[in-house]
Design goal:
It is built from seven helices and no strands. The chain is mostly helical and 194 residues long. It is elongated, with a radius of gyration of 20 Å.
Length: 194
C-alpha cells in the first residue's frame, strides 16, 4: 500500500510539474501509473484488512461528521482511513482513472514504445505513419473526440493536483489534532498505537 501510494504520488507530481505533456516521458509515467494503480486495486481486494475496500467504505455523512469533530479538535482514531480520508481516496482514484483513460484516448492507446517508433519514423522522413486507414471512420469526428479527451485530460489532471494538495493539508491538520505524525507510518510502515 505504501509503495503504490508513493509511486502514484511521484507520478502525479512528475507528470504535473516535470515532464512535457504528451512527451514520451509523460506517456511512460502514465503507463507506469496504470500498472501501479491496477496492483493497488487488486491489493484492495486481497490485501490485509486495513488495505481492503471494506476497511474504508465511502460515507459522505460520516465524512462530514468527522470533519466537524476535527474542526472542534476532537478527531477519533481509525484502524484504516478516517471517513473524510476514505472519500478523498475514492475521489483521487476516480480522478486518476479519468486522467489515465483520457490519456489513453489522446494517444490512441499506443504504448510509449509505439509512440517512440512513430516519432522516429517521422523524424527519418517516413510520414506514412501519420496516414490513417479509411476504415478508421470520420476524421473530423475523431479529431473532435481527441480534442475533447485532451481538454478533459488536462482538467482532470489539474483537479488531481488540487485534490492532492487538499489531501496533504488534511493529513497535516489531522496529525496536529491527533498529536501524532500520520506521514511517518506511510514512510516506515509502523504505526504508533494510542
Amino acid at each position: 500500500m505504501r509503495i503504490s501510494h508513493w509511486a502514484i504520488a511521484a507520478a502525479v507530481l512528475a507528470n504535473g510539474f516535470i515532464t512535457k505533456p504528451g512527451g514520451i516521458a509523460h506517456v511512460w509515467v502514465g503507463w507506469a501509473v496504470m500498472g501501479v494503480f491496477a496492483s493497488r486495486l487488486i491489493w484492495a481486494v486481497v490485501g490485509p484488512q486495513e488495505a481492503r475496500f471494506s476497511a474504508f467504505p465511502p460515507s459522505p455523512s460520516a465524512a462530514l461528521h468527522h470533519i466537524g469533530n476535527l474542526l472542534r479538535g476532537r478527531a477519533r482514531e481509525y484502524p484504516s482511513h478516517n471517513p473524510a480520508a476514505a472519500i478523498m481516496v475514492y475521489t483521487l482514484w476516480a480522478c486518476l482513472m479519468l486522467v489515465t483513460a483520457t490519456g489513453l484516448l489522446v494517444t490512441d492507446g499506443k504504448s510509449p514504445t509505439a509512440i517512440t517508433e512513430e516519432r522516429a519514423a517521422i523524424a527519418a522522413g517516413n510520414w506514412s505513419v501519420l496516414v490513417k486507414s479509411s476504415s478508421e471512420g470520420d476524421d473530423n469526428k475523431g479529431e473532435f473526440y481527441m480534442r475533447v479527451a485532451g481538454e478533459v485530460h488536462e482538467l482532470a489532471a489539474n483537479l488531481l493536483l488540487v485534490l492532492a494538495a487538499v489531501h496533504v493539508g488534511g493529513v497535516l491538520i489531522e496529525s496536529r489534532v491527533l498529536g501524532r505524525n500520520l506521514v511517518r507510518p506511510m514512510i516506515v510502515g509502523r504505526r504508533r498505537r494510542s
